[in-house]
Amino acid sequence: MTQLFPGRFPATRLRRTRAESWSRRLVAETALSPNDLIWPVFVTHGDRNEPIASMPGVERYSLKNIGRAAKEAYDLGIPLIALFPYTEPDKRSDDGREACNMDNLVCRAIGEIRSHAPDIGVMADVALDPYTSHGQDGLVDDMGRILNDETVAVLCRQAITQARAGCHMIAPSDMMDGRIGTIRSALDEEGFQAVQIMSYAAKYASAFYGPFRDAVGSRGVLKGDKKTYQMDPANSEEALREVAMDLAEGADSVIVKPGMPYLDIVSRVKQQFGVPTFAYQVSGEYAMLVAAAQSGALEHDAAIFESLLAFKRAGADGILSYFAPKAARILMQHDTIKP
Ligand code: PBG
Fold first, then answer.
1. CATH code of 93's domain
2. Which of 83, 87, 125, 276 falls 20 to 30 Å from 26 in CA-CA distance?
């Protein structure tokens, strides 16, 4: 065949390695595996699961069903489950004391999971919002200010309560100053040296948490916003300072949250610190993707996989995602997703 442009084209043509599926698979720089997935799960009292209107396809699991769901997740290869409770309104109080009740929903769910799926990791959130009547993550004074050090004292008790119930990992999502170091010492003093801390180190005051607040029942009750403790979406240097401090205080791994709008932060954190770094694809991101797929604007599975792979490409070691079981199921069936 005659060359159309003799001598003018480069020797290297990137389309050559893209031409066939086998070649695309061979040169793929990142891959997604069930090992990368952390499944956030909502729990509720009673015998029946409940749908969550703003998160189609996600349910609150009843205590009765949570053990079986965890076993299924384990069988799909998911390493870790993150628990969030829907606390009954009459158990919510100004001081969120239900958080430190050994018999609360989270503690009972931990027990259920440990007995049905003894080899899956169990992570429990540390923050007061599912337990407070005002929906804030911390204690509030008469002026409506969030009290830092007083809150940290309660968070230590909450962490110990959850560790006693048998969780493997504590994830402080409250964004109080100094909580990682204080919780680390409190756990150590109680003999829980082996319990890991995954810190929500860079957690932004985001509009993407709306459906989560429905799921844990704090949306209607939340007074004001969380801008005095969660980060300003305008900032990234500050995220690196948060991460540096949490690591110095003893965090084993860190979370950047939300996920998709904050991939730049994921990337900088991983590059700068080289520590286990996780991204949280939050409830609003879930709702957005599902709504777009339901309207026919996006192809559901392809869009989910692309979004999850993007976290890996940005440097995340794993992703907290409500899509975890669905994604793991598809990955298991295919062994590899055709690039
Ligand atoms: C609060 C907490 C929130 C989420 C996890 N822990 C919401 C908030 O800060 O108001 C959000 C997760 C999601 O949107 O999926 N401690």
1. 3.20.20.70
2. 276
